[in-house]
C-alpha cells in the first residue's frame, strides 16, 4: 500500500510505538537485535503490529480496517489504458480488486470537494449560517458556479448540498470562509480552511495528497492520489448528511439574498449514473458519489456502489479522456464485481 508498507510513511507515531515495543523486548533479552518487520495484514509481527505474548499487549496495524494497495492490481479482461489512475475497493472484505497508478499524485478537480465536505461537517453544524464575501465571485473560465453573490446567506446544510450535487466552486469558498470564521469568531479565510483540509488528510493516513483550495480549480501543487481519495471518501461516508446528499439526483432550496429577499436554487446532480443517463452493470447499484472535470484533471469520478448481495464498494477513476469514456470505463471497472 502506498504509505502503509513503506518505511518512508508519514505515520511515524505508529511506527515509533512498534519500535519502542521492539526495543523493550531487546533490552530484556540478549542484547541488540535487528528486526525485519515488513507490513503484513495478518502477520503477528510486522511494522504495524507486534504482539508481546508474555504481557498480552497488542499494537494493532493502522490498516486493520482498510483495503491495502501496495502495487498495481490487475483484473482479467479489464484494461483501462486511457485513464490516468483507477481503483476498486471491497470495503467489507477489505480487498483491493483493481489498482492502476493508485499512488500517483494527480489533479483531482472537484473530487477535492469530498475533502471540503468532510472538514465542513466535522467542524461546522448544518444549521450554521454563512455570509458570502467578495471572494465567491470566481471568474475562471469554465468554473461551475451556483451564482451566489456577496452578502447572500446560506446554511451549511444548503451549502454542502450545492457543493456536492452541483459542484459549485463559489459555494466551496463560502463554506471555507464560513467554517473558519465560526471557529475563530471573526472573518474566516480559504487559507485557514486549507490548513484544516491538509491536517485532516494526514490524520486519516492520506499522506500523498496536498490541497491548496477547497474547490479543486487547477493550481500547481494541488494534488491527490486515487488511494488517498478512497481514504477521504470512506471517512466522509461516516457522516449521515454526506451519505444522504451524494445519493440525490436533484435538489432545490431557498436561501437569503444580500437585500433580504429570497433566492431559489434548483440543481441537478452532475453524476450521470444517478440521473439515469448511464447504467452500471446489472448486478451493481450505484449509491452515489462525486464527479470532477477540468482541462488539467480530465474527467474524474468516485463512487459508492453495492453488489446484489449488499457488499459496499468504493471505486475511483482519475484523468479519463472524455465524459462518455469515463462512464463506460467506470461501468467496466464495476463489472469485475461478482
Kindly summarize this structure in a few lines.
Helix content is 29%, strand content 21%. The protein has 338 residues and is α+β, with helices and mostly antiparallel strands. The model is unreliable at 1-37 (pLDDT under 50).
Outline the structure in words.
The strands form 4 sheets. Strands 5-4-12-11-10 form a 5-stranded antiparallel β-sheet, sandwiched between helices. Strands 1-2-3 form a 3-stranded antiparallel β-sheet, covered by helices on one side. Strands 6-7 form a two-stranded antiparallel sheet. By secondary structure, the protein is α+β, with helices and mostly antiparallel strands. It has helices spanning 12-27, 112-123, 156-166, 169-184, 190-203, 226-236, 240-246, 323-334, and strands at residues 45-46, 49-52, 57-59, 85-90, 95-100, 129-131, 153-155, 250-256, 262-268, 284-294, 298-307, 312-320. Helix content is 29%, strand content 21%. It contains 8 helices and 12 strands.
Describe the secondary-structure layout:
Elements: H1 12-27, E1 45-46, E2 49-52, E3 57-59, E4 85-90, E5 95-100, H2 112-123, E6 129-131, E7 153-155, H3 156-166, H4 169-184, H5 190-203, H6 226-236, H7 240-246, E8 250-256, E9 262-268, E10 284-294, E11 298-307, E12 312-320, H8 323-334
Antiparallel strand pairs: 1-2, 2-3, 4-5, 4-12, 6-7, 8-9, 10-11, 11-12
Helix pairs in contact: 2-3, 2-4, 2-5, 2-6, 3-4, 3-7, 4-5
Amino acid at each position: 500500500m502506498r504509505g502503509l508498507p513503506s518505511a518512508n510513511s508519514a505515520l511515524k507515531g505508529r511506527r515509533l510505538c512498534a519500535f519502542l515495543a521492539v526495543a523493550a523486548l531487546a533490552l530484556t533479552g540478549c542484547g541488540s537485535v535487528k528486526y525485519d518487520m515488513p507490513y503484513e495484514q495478518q502477520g503477528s509481527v510486522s511494522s504495524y503490529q507486534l504482539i508481546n505474548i508474555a504481557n498480552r499487549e497488542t499494537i494493532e496495524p493502522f490498516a486493520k480496517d482498510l483495503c491495502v494497495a501496495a502495487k498495481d492490481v490487475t483484473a482479467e479482461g479489464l484494461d483501462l489504458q486511457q485513464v490516468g489512475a483507477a481503483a476498486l475497493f471491497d470495503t467489507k472484505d477489505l480487498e483491493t480488486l483493481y489498482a492502476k497508478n493508485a499512488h500517483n499524485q494527480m489533479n483531482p478537480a472537484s473530487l477535492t470537494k469530498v475533502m471540503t465536505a468532510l472538514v465542513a461537517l466535522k467542524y461546522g453544524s448544518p444549521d450554521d449560517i454563512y455570509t458570502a464575501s467578495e471572494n465567491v465571485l470566481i471568474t475562471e473560465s469554465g468554473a461551475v458556479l451556483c451564482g451566489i453573490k456577496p452578502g447572500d446567506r446560506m446554511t451549511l446544510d444548503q451549502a454542502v448540498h450545492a457543493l456536492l450535487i452541483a459542484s459549485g466552486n463559489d459555494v466551496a469558498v463560502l463554506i471555507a470562509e464560513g467554517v473558519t470564521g465560526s471557529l475563530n469568531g471573526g472573518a474566516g479565510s480559504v487559507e485557514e480552511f486549507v490548513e484544516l483540509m491538509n491536517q485532516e488528510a494526514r490524520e486519516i493516513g492520506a499522506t500523498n495528497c496536498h490541497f491548496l483550495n477547497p474547490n479543486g480549480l487547477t493550481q500547481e501543487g494541488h494534488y491527490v492520489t486515487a488511494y488517498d481519495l478512497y481514504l477521504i471518501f470512506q471517512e466522509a461516508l461516516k457522516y449521515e448528511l454526506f451519505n444522504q446528499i451524494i445519493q440525490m439526483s436533484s435538489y432545490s432550496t431557498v436561501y437569503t439574498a444580500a437585500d433580504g429577499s429570497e433566492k431559489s436554487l434548483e440543481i441537478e446532480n452532475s453524476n450521470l449514473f444517478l440521473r439515469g443517463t448511464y447504467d452500471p452493470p446489472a448486478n451493481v447499484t450505484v449509491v452515489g458519489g462525486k464527479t470532477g472535470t477540468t482541462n488539467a484533471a480530465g474527467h474524474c469520478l468516485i463512487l459508492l456502489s453495492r453488489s446484489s448481495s449488499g457488499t459496499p464498494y468504493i471505486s475511483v477513476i482519475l484523468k479519463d479522456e472524455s465524459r462518455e469514456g469515463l462512464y463506460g470505463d467506470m461501468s467496466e471497472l464495476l463489472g469485475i464485481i461478482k
